[in-house]
Structures are given as C-alpha cells and as structure tokens.
Amino acid sequence: MNEDTPGAGGGAGPGTVRPGGRTARVREAVLRAAGDALVERGFGGVDLAEVARRAGVGKTTVYRRWGTVPVLVADMLAEMAESSQPRADTGSLDGDLAALAGLILGTLTDERQGPLFKAVIATATGDGPTAEALHRFYRVRITEWAPCVDLAVERGEIPAGTDPAEVIRSLSAPLYYRLLASGDPLDAAAAKRAAAATAVAARAGVFVSAA
Predict the structure, then answer these.
(1) How far from 191 is each of 110, 142, 176, 210, CA to CA, in Å?
(2) Rg (Cα) of the chain, in Å, rounded?
(3) Residue 176's CB: how many other CB atoms inside 10 A?
(4) In the chain, what are the domains?
(5) Rounded Cα distance, 42 and 211, in Å
(6) CB–CB of 203/184 below 8 Å?
(7) Please, are residues 31 and 97 in contact by the beta-carbon 8 Å criterion?
C-alpha cells in the first residue's frame, strides 16, 4: 500500500521500503513518539529533538532519516497505510461496503488513531507537505478498496462505468463529517447507514462516470 514519500535529501524517502530489524524498531519508536507529540501539542509543538528523546534514539538518527516535521508526518501516514487492514472480499457490494464502513469507524473511534487523524487533518489545512501526504494516504486507501466496486460491476450488482473512487468517498464522507464537523455520534449505526446509502446510490447509477 506504500507510495514513495519524499525525503529531506532526495532519493528514496522514508516509508518507501519496509525496513527490518533494528531499523524497523527505530522507525516504530520514532513514529509513535511523533504521533504522541502531534496529538498532545499539534503540529507546531512537534520538535525533532524532543521526538528523538521520547523515542530513546539519537537526534542525529532522526535528523538524518526524516529531516523535517512534515517528512516525519508523511512517514507516519505511510506507516498507517502499511498497517491498515486489507480489503474485504465478502462476495457482495453490500458486504464489502459494510466492512469498509466498519474499518473506518474502528479507526476514527480508536483512542489513539482518532485524535491522531484529527491532528493530521487540522495540520493539513495550513501545511502543503502535510496536505499532500494526507492526500497520498487516501489515494492509496481508495486504490486498495476500488476492486470491491469493480467486482460488483462484474457481478452485475451495479452499472458498468461506476467510479470506484466516488463510491468510496461517498461512504467515507459522512463518517469524517461526524468526526470533524457536526459532533453527531460516530457509532455503528452511522457506519451502517453510510454503507447502505452508498450501496443504494451505486445501484441507482449515481456514481457512473459521465464519460
């Protein structure tokens, strides 16, 4: 699920290759420390030296590998994409969309992941590199889940020409709206409604590309 993440000094960026051994442990510790700082203090309160201290690694390691806070946040998003659950294949569009809604709900209501997403999204509104990293994260997620829509077309459940990305955005949007804007309950009932409404709209041809 990775895409290349730009590094501070060019070449392959952090998150491009899944490291092993000590390198993997260092990355995990640094990203967790950065996430904690981001949740506690916001983007402006994240300091690479402090992140290194929290992670128990040398400052030189953090500065050499990540270089800037936006690159560190970008790698954090890459790691989230790497560790997220794989696409469901239930054999029906309704089942797949319900699984996706449940996955989104579980992420956004997680005691760590929920606040972390809020902090990253808030940062992305005013920081270009973080915004691009967030956009890349969601492009990767949409790409992973697009086959559930393509398979539904093959099974004849929904019309040919249905745009998978639009289907997935339609399902996700009301859940993120509850998280970030309305303050309405973000619960299993909301996830169920989002999945059901998206499935109905897809069968009605709402997401068929104009072209």
Answers:
(1) 15, 17, 11, 28
(2) 19
(3) 15
(4) 21-80 (1.10.10.60), 86-203 (1.10.357.10)
(5) 42
(6) no
(7) no
Q: 88: which DSSP letter? A: P
Rounded to 5 degrees, φ, ψ at 162 are -65, 130
Burial of 67 (0-12, 13-18, 19+ CB in 10 A): middle
| Sequence letter at residue 5 | T
Q: How far apart are CA 63 and CA 81, in angstroms?
A: 23
Of the candidates 64, 52, 72, 50, the residue with the CA atom closest to the CA atom of residue 129 = 72
pTM of the model: 0.79
Q: pLDDT tens track of the chain, all 211 residues?
A: 333 333 333 333 444 344 457 788 999 999 999 989 888 888 888 899 999 999 999 999 999 999 988 889 888 888 887 777 778 899 999 999 999 999 999 999 988 888 888 888 988 888 888 898 899 889 988 999 999 999 999 999 999 999 999 999 999 999 999 999 999 999 999 999 999 999 999 999 999 987 6
Encoding tokens for residue 9?
């000094």
Is residue 162 a contact partner of residue 182, using CB atoms and an 8 Å limit?
no
Residues in the chain: 211
Joined tokens for residue 203: 């069968």
